[in-house]
Amino acid sequence: MLKSVLLCLFLLALRCPAEEMGAQLFQTVCAACHGPKGEGKDDLKTPSIANLPEWYVLRQLTNFHEGRRGENGQVDPQGALMAAIAKTLKPEQMKAVANHVQSLALVVPKERTLEGAQVQAGQELFYERCMECHRYNASGEQLFGSPPLVGRQGWYLLAQLKKFKSLHRGNAKGDDKGAKMVMMTTLFIEDEQVMKNLVGYILTLNPEPIKP
């Protein structure tokens, strides 16, 4: 797969105008896993990325590229694949892809509930510990480097909380924003039930698309 990605990147660099680079790269490199609209694929465990802010997508691509995320393929096989792909991209290509991802129309997940979640308890925890950075509607805040949580699949949010708590994400040197999430999950999330409660509440919120 990586050989074909590298070949496509080479061909794109030869023939692609700068303004089209992001869209071309997305369809060539990203769409097979994340879907042509960035909607994600549950069977591949790839999240919806459509309409995520450019600054967040670029930060995560950089983290993958620089080895701050996805380095342990045994516990994070999807992250390891992302890291391998990100390492083939140049900085200007990552920037172009990030801009294109933000331009994609928001795709709301089909599943808006999480089995076993106690939504009221999740709401209380969200108000107490998450809202300050991720805002009242979980739409994120660039000032704090906090991404939108709404519009993402419940299974993905749950998986990321588990990775933060188990130090499989956010524990690498240089990932300051991730380190804050490690601290929050360590201090305030006791177990998987608490994670489910939190995610269950987030899924009830209505996403607000990022305007161009």
Automatic annotation (TrEMBL):
According to the entry, every stretch annotated as the Cytochrome c domain falls at: 17-105, 117-206
By its UniProt entry, which Pfam families does this protein fall under? Cytochrom_C (PF00034)
**What keywords are annotated for this sequence in UniProt?**
Electron transport, Heme, Iron, Metal-binding, Signal, Transport
Molecular function terms, GO-annotated: electron transfer activity; heme binding; metal ion binding
The record ties this protein, via InterPro entries, to: Cyt_c-like_dom (IPR009056), Cyt_c-like_dom_sf (IPR036909), Cytochrome_c_Oxidase_Subunit (IPR050597)
Tree of life domain:
Bacteria
Q: Which PROSITE patterns match?
A: CYTC (PS51007)
Residues in the signal sequence: 1-18
- Specify the protein name: Cytochrome c domain-containing protein
List the source organism. Answer: Prosthecobacter dejongeii
| Lineage of origin | Bacteria, Pseudomonadati, Verrucomicrobiota, Verrucomicrobiia, Verrucomicrobiales
